[in-house]
Write a structure and sequence with these properties.
The structure is a homodimer of 241-residue chains.
Chain A: H1 8-19, E1 24-27, H2 39-53, E2 59-62, H3 64-68, H4 72-84, E3 92-97, H5 101-114, E4 119-122, H6 128-131, E5 141-147, H7 153-156, E6 160-163, E7 168-171, H8 172-183, E8 189-193, H9 198-207, E9 213-214, H10 225-232
Parallel strand pairs in A: 1-2, 3-4, 4-5, 5-8, 8-9
Antiparallel strand pairs in A: 6-7
């Protein structure tokens, strides 16, 4: 598929329309899923998942941690997994990176250059200039962590924030959603919101009407797909996977 | 040096006392520092830094991003850099990881097992259960991002938070410092606070009287060493590097 000068989310939307699916397939080679803890075992495991799902996968989401835990050969396997995914299917590397300036540039080169992912999950704690290096190329996308579904999510994300300077009011995660809406100047920034929380999804959608939401946890983590879609979809019936 | 059953910060303190230095030496193989973009060039660059500083380095802090940007051979070089550091000098891997459950476990295995780092920088946005896998082994340490020195730090970290449920009041970064103080049940959790901000250092020290603070930015980023030390040191004259 030709992707010259195609915005990441246009690429994702074209895939979604082509197969009429919002499914993002995680590629998480847990140690318990592998016959041996090697890069080639992780690659074979992921290839099996890709073969089984390629006709209804809107995107693939390999989890960097399970490859990193296998050392240098794990990183080679991650690169090979991404290369094994058909060109027309976007790859979102789940790595939750977050750092500043030249370090963020290096993480972006690792994800988009070396590994050839199309998008990356990133962390908002360091603010705008730590996000910018990941969205400087409109062909590459980033999904900013907003509201996660783990117990500790409430430790920071649910805190009520008040700031006249930043005009912030509401929960921290809603503030992150509003910031992302303003940071999205090239149309290639989305959010990560756990699918198990329909109310949070609705609040994020209200705070960021235009942004794509990556909503992990439908199915495996007990999320209710219908409630999540009702809460998170945009008016155009897209905007969530 | 024998490290059997030695807490990470006891290990760090023994090194600091042995050489009477609080200096943490960053190992950041920027592309502009390398004659060619290869793992072996990064390894040689870092070996040169280590040779030049080993007599006054309280710890080394390799930056994962610059190695990741070199692909699988970069990860092999990172492993070799850490192996080249004398056993008596703690290694803090600067990777700012943050994820939940089995994914955090995998990042911990990558940092502490595969790469054999002694400590890791981590991100607080996902809360307590995302921190716990990094501090389950007292011999390994973690430094939680608290207040950074980049412009975007104010986007989240400086927000005023209010929560009766969490008894939170003050800036978000102060809340993170208080949380870390309570999460530090095994004595192996510290904080990252930019050295350029003496007032923030003093507030963090007030919120977390016992915790070690990793304060990058003295020197290279324009921090004032004396002001930073006055603000950040513990009553025992330690607690900051």
């Amino acid at each position: 598929m030709q992707r010259i000068e195609m915005n990441f989310f246009d690429f994702l939307e074209s895939r979604i329309r082509a197969i009429d699916s919002l499914l993002c397939v995680g590629l998480d080679p847990h140690p318990s899923d592998l016959p041996e803890l090697t890069g080639s075992a992780a690659l074979e495991f992921c290839r099996g998942l890709i073969d089984a799902t390629v006709n209804f996968a809107a995107a693939y989401k390999p989890n960097a941690a399970f490859f990193e835990a296998l050392g240098p050969e794990g990183i080679a396997a991650l690169r090979d997994v991404i290369a094994a995914i058909p060109d027309e299917v976007p790859v979102i590397l789940d790595a939750k990176r977050g750092d500043i300036a030249s370090t963020a540039d290096a993480y972006a080169r690792a994800a988009f250059g070396v590994l050839a992912a199309d998008a990356l999950t990133i962390n908002p704690y360091l603010g705008h200039d730590a996000v910018e290096p990941f969205i400087s190329d409109p062909e590459k996308g980033a999904f900013l962590l907003c509201k996660t579904s783990n117990p500790g999510a409430s430790d920071l994300q649910d805190l009520e924030v008040h700031s006249t300077r930043y005009r912030a009011q509401g929960a921290l995660y809603e503030h992150v959603a509003r910031l992302a809406q303003t940071w999205n100047t090239r149309g290639n920034l989305g959010l990560v919101v756990g699918a198990t929380q329909a109310e949070a999804l609705a609040r994020v959608r209200a705070a960021a009407p235009d942004l794509w939401i990556l909503a992990p946890g439908v199915g495996a983590q007990g999320g209710d797909l219908r409630a999540a879609l009702q809460a998170g979809l945009r008016a155009d019936g897209l905007g969530m996977l």
